[in-house]
User: What shape does this take?
Amino acid sequence: MAKFTPLAVVLIALLFIAHTTAYRTIVTSVEIDEGIDNRKSGSCREQLQQQQYLNECERFLRQQSQSQSQRDTVSGRQQLEQCCDQLREVSKSCRCDGLSEIVSEQLGHLQGEDRREVMQIARNLPNECNLKPGRCDSEMRSN
Assistant: This one.
């Protein structure tokens, strides 16, 4: 019996070490995964400023307000892609705010049906660019 006691103590110590190592590995991997989601840094204002306040999206929306048929032209698709490039560089939590700002401030001169159409296009821009959120609803109001 005396021979089994040291062996049992060593076995229990090894089990404890193995359990502690496995737990530490899990905690470490969770911390690494959480850090991946924060790749966009800075406030929305800073991000929008770095992307020239989504000037390409504003240009695209202005073009759409002037002629709906322009969207299917080569220049219309190029402007859409340039807008998408800017939206990709802004965190998803800031995209709709930036688009809403464009609609309310820069395109504020539009009235009635023209304004509704531009707002509808702006709401769907993230979806057109295959970005999340797919649609900006609550962020945009028709003032």
